[in-house]
Write a structure and sequence with these properties.
The chain contains 2 helices and 9 strands; from the N terminus they run βαββββαββββ. By secondary structure, it is α+β, with helices and mostly antiparallel strands. It starts with 6 loop residues before the first strand and ends with a strand.
Length: about 110
């Protein structure tokens, strides 16, 4: 897999489509990385109006995943999934670059 490639799973794409439709927004999911969280970095998800010039743009089933160039350095090669379990439902990043994570699954270190 190309280091600059990411995957948006079909289940994540379907969930983004539902959320975007409810909010009347484009089906564009932005993944960004911020400092903080219990392991050093944390993932942040939100709907975007449109891709920015420096974004990586991945399309899956009519839904778009966008990642800014700075965050991409920390998440390249990742799979963005949507997982439902007894503990709740959430977007999840399977990041091959993460050296360690935390129990909540929303923060990581490299």
């Amino acid at each position: 897999m190309d280091a600059q490639t990411m995957i948006l799973s079909p289940s994540a794409a379907a969930r983004v489509a539902v959320i975007a439709a409810k909010q009347g927004k484009p089906a564009i999911l932005r993944l960004s990385v911020e400092g903080g969280g219990c392991s050093g970095f944390q993932y942040k998800f939100g709907l975007a109006e449109a891709p920015q010039d420096d974004d990586l743009v991945i399309e899956q089933g009519g839904v778009v995943l966008v990642v800014d160039s700075i965050s991409l350095d920390l998440v390249a090669g990742s799979v963005v999934d949507y997982v439902e379990s007894l503990g709740g439902a959430a977007f999840k990043v399977e990041n091959p670059q993460a050296a360690s994570g935390c129990g909540c699954g929303s923060s990581f270190s490299v």
